[in-house]
Amino acid sequence: MITMPQVDRYKQRAVNIEFFAVEDCSLLPYTDRFSLIFITSGSIKGLLNDRPICINAPGILCLAGDDEWQVTEKHKLAAQSFNFHPEFLVSAIYVETEDYLPTAPRIQTGRSFFVREHPSMAVPRITEKAYPLLFQWFFVLGTEVQAQSDERWACRIKKYLIQILGLLEDLNRMSQHSPVDAVLEYIHTHYPKKILLEDLTNCAHMNRVTLNQLFQERCGYTAIGYLLSHRLKMACDLLTHTDMSLNDIAGSIGFEYDTYFIKQFTAKKGMSPTTYRIISRKLATHV
Asked: Which residue intervals define the domain HTH araC/xylS-type in the entry (predicted)?
């Protein structure tokens, strides 16, 4: 059990996160923090703010510190949890300087899962195809909390958190009622890897002309154009909220070479990734 706060042995600072490899959900929610609970087997029933909730594995439960949660039934439950203080959502550059200004840019990806305007968002939809990737990211995130493998360990955890919450957001925007939804799910769960147009047409079971026509009507992009747009969207979050190198960001979103990533980013965004990082952080401090 790794409890909050963590002491960064490289930079001698407190990092307000914790990871429980075995989470029985009975002590939730944890005070003054967000909790991301990954249920890998079994099932659990409970009351969240007096509303009944049932989660069967694989499933995700998102809780805020001011939620009211009561377990009513568990069956062969196996779960892990990652817990983080809201300060952990402050962009990396401000964490480094310990400048916790209210206006400092904060990660917005996935915040809706911890806001109770829509209680159903506490249990985001996941799919069979998404589960292996979520499991991998969650496992590596937990391992990194314990290992602190190098001085950028906290930054990598923030990267995995952005990717996990981003994928959950994408999955919860889809209905999976059409070939386009199937391809969208494929893109959202495979974008860190190499993807060819043939992979997408095989997923949709249609030729590229028809697929691109449907994508244009639905998303305003061709299928490959949407893939590039999604990768650059993830890049924008990582540029703003982490201090990852351009090479590391490129590899995380499916670009084999950082030079090609820089070229595509500059062409689509009208500025280099480095310039975007500087401007986005400055703009966020004035919002």
From this structure: 181-279
